[in-house]
Task: structure prediction
Amino acid sequence: MNRRRRPGVTIRETSFYNPPVPMIQTLRFVLGDQLTRNVASLRDLDPARDVVLMAEVVEEATYVRHHKQKIAFVLAAMRGFAKALEKEGIRVDYVKLDDPANTQSFTGELKRAIARHKPARIVATEPGEYRVLDMMRAWAGMSGLPVEIRDDDRFFCSRAEFAAWAKDRKSMRMEFFYREMRRKTGYLMQGDAPAGATWNFDSQNRKALPRGHRVAVRRRPAAGPELRAVLDLVAAQFGDHFGDLEPFVWATTREGALAALREFVAERLHLFGDYQDAMKSGEDFIYHAAISPYLNAGLLTAREVCDAAVNAWRDGTAPLNAVEGFLRQILGWREFVRGIYWTRMPDYAATNFLDATRRLPDFFWTGETKMNCLRETIGVTRRTAYAHHIQRLMVAGNFALLAGVAPAEIEEWYLIVYADAYEWVELPNVHGMVLHADGGVLGSKPYAASGAYIDRMSDYCGKCAHDRRKRTGEGACPFNFLYWNFLIENESKLTRNPRLAMPYRALLAMQPAERKALRMAAAEFFAALGI
Ligand code: FAD
Ligand code: DLZ
Ligand code: SF4
Result:
């Protein structure tokens, strides 16, 4: 029997004839966001008979034109991981980006590796993007080999478990899912009840930073020669991509990521809750962990991050409102958005509930705008391939929502610019949480807000050319007239949403002349931007 002609079939050796054992039993393909020693595809690895394939390919850096620091982070982390595997005595076939024979695609590199090693089978872990899953599904047919795509079990909730939870639910709310996850893991539970007798400390967690408050400085890891080589490669190959390459702000090894986690737990976690919604000029990270690139690429596991936070509460070094708020992000939101992605794709990405069609303004790429909140948010994004949650949600995202930017345009922007962005996590956050393009699958209402919110949570407005108190007229804050224009434009779709009852009542009470003035201000603003 020819093994190569029977993709996906497991063969039991029952005859007297023992076919020759291939030199390489299993080729294990590890992707750039699967850099965990215990990832499913490496779990039963036999160093004597298996080879790990890792490939740097241009296709992954250019299917959207990723931020330079994102590409450098992934490539450097891949190289570091390969080195760590080799140190363990594991054979790694590592294809570098500038290898002249590199076909520059996952499928092309798999094909070449099969020719080199002649394995009996391929093992991979399911990817974080539907696009790559489609590629993987074609590998058995392409190679004639059995291809095993294993569940990615680096998450607390499997895809099957989430699908079972979501089944028959009209609306899926993160809060209920999160409570299930608390019960399942036992994190911050006292028997059947939540620690502190409440599931949610949000009411304590909405503070702006006090004037003059100094935030602990986040240390930047030192760059070694390996990172230097990658930075030079990225500068040469992807120099025209968005964002600054240096100073490079990310660790690229597991040790570096663990050090970043330790630093966060020791120096910032205790105030994470209090200031998780705060924004401040020149403060890039505030009390956020800045670990999402590490978590998503596999340098940290979600379990060890949650353990570290919960242990800090047990040790008395961080209060419950901080630790619960932090746990909710990882055990709740991170798992929830992944569940939505895999239960709803591929149709999810095609929805456009609010029929938003405007172009993304150019200033999202250049940062050249008089709106200080957006200049700050796009500025940190360019410098670091990072912005914290409230900048993503309530500044950049809020603007895209209010301006009616077409979902695909702004989704691509988010996928490009952030070092932690992979479609499984980026798409539900942008499409569902920010744009309400899914009509309410992920969140019960759009997070639309006027300039008053940004003013309350930041010091941006005091340094802005616009006046956040003005709705219309010379110097009015665009978030104000865009907010009301958004409610008017989407009245037929949103007016019955009970969570928007208050603003729609205010709109109803508005004089027609004021409504008209708000519409005019928005129209002139869009015309000036050419969108
Ligand atoms: P912290 O605020 O310290 O939170 C700790 C961890 O919780 C994060 O590292 C992250 O793993 C997790 N987390 C927090 N919020 C979310 C969330 N809404 N969804 C999933 N995980 C969450 N996160 C990504 O990892 N990749 C993305 O591409 C991404 N795109 C986003 C786009 C928009 C429009 C919005 C509103 C949010 C997006 N997020 C994304 C979620 C969140 O903004 C980032 O995870 C967070 O800013 C990362 O910084 P941090 O590590 O300092 O997080
Ligand atoms: C993001 C990225 C980049 C820029 N480059 C590579 C690469 O060269 N090789 C690789 O294996 N992975 C890379 N990645 C991560 C992949 O895009 C990611 O694994 C898929 O999108 C699936 O989530
Ligand atoms: Fe942003 Fe308006 Fe404040 Fe300026 S005034 S920073 S545009 S919210």
